[in-house]
Amino acid sequence: MTFGSLFAGIGGFDLGLERAGMECRWQVEIDDYAGRVLAKHWPNVTRWGDVRTFPPSGPDEWRVDLICAGVPCQPVSHAGKQKGSNDERWMWGEALRVVADLQPAFFVAENPIGILNHDRGRTFRGLLRALASVGYVCEWHVIAAADLGAPHRRQRVWLVAHADGVSRTEGEPRRASGRVLTAGAGPQGREDQGQARSVAGYCGADVADADSGRCEVQRLAEHGDEQGSPRSFTHGRGPCRRWQGTQGVAGYWITEPDVGRVAHGVPHRVDRLRCLGNAVVPQIVELIGRAIIEHQRHVAADL
After folding, report:
1. What residues are paired with 48 via a beta bridge?
2. pLDDT at 94 over 70
């Protein structure tokens, strides 16, 4: 399978899909520093700078089996003002335009969980209706970096859309049966089966990655309970703790890894941290990519 990458950043999507067995054909990224990272690791892949002028020629030259998009998160992130489509960085419209023009078999996108209940859910429902209107069936899951073993939550919404050729312009968009991602969402198997629940209801008051307050999982990580005991490991600049219970990992850091924000004499430190903060977790992308490939194998076998 071939894919193209919108808002490619430093290539988290691209790395994950390549690990799953797909081939990158093109990348779109406007940031100069991120573009140099892409050029270093994908020297033979065609790149374009501005999604607003993409594709620069006829769609036949740019067709791929899958388009992935790490759409800019600031318009719906809890860390920002959540202006949605009123934010100049709102790029969902451009992403959906490219998908409508190129008509890939699959579209995979990632965004913060704030998009689920932004404007009381109207924003996310609007995106689903837009995809449905051009013939795509959608499903979505909340998957955290911690679900694949990382010592931080980094919860994100992962949207998978599959073209079925049936345009729907009225009513609620139809969801997929869930077959594409039935492999689960990591060792804990936690998935959000397309339910746009309120953020407070889904994760409690400690939803934000930057929250430094105490919570139950932190207490378990420090002290354990009758079913398990704390387990130490080293990450980044110092030790941290994870609680191991009978049902697997039950406690982890409530913040993202501790990294220095400035370092005198280290070139591009700010650029590196900014790009890492905007990047997706390649291991999650690989999970999704492998599930899509397996789905295609089942389809081919049925035919």
Report:
1. 28
2. yes
pLDDT in tens, 96-124: 999 999 999 999 999 988 888 888 888 89
Q: Is 73 a catalytic residue?
A: yes
Tokens in use for 37?
Answer: 């990272």
Domain locations in the chain?
Answer: 2-206+261-302, 214-253
Note the pLDDT tens digit of each residue in 152-206: 788 899 999 999 877 665 544 444 433 333 233 333 333 333 333 222 222 222 2
Right CATH number for 2-206+261-302 from 3.30.70.141, 3.40.50.150, 1.10.10.10, 1.10.3110.10?
A: 3.40.50.150
Q: Which of 73, 138, 240, 275 is catalytic?
A: 73
Q: How many secondary structure helices (H) and strands (E) does the chain include?
A: 9, 10
Q: Three-state SS for 245?
A: strand
Cβ neighbours for 150, distance < 8 A, ≥ 6 positions apart: 281, 283
Q: Indicate the burial class of 196 (C-beta count within 10 angstroms; 0-12, 13-18, 19 or more).
A: buried
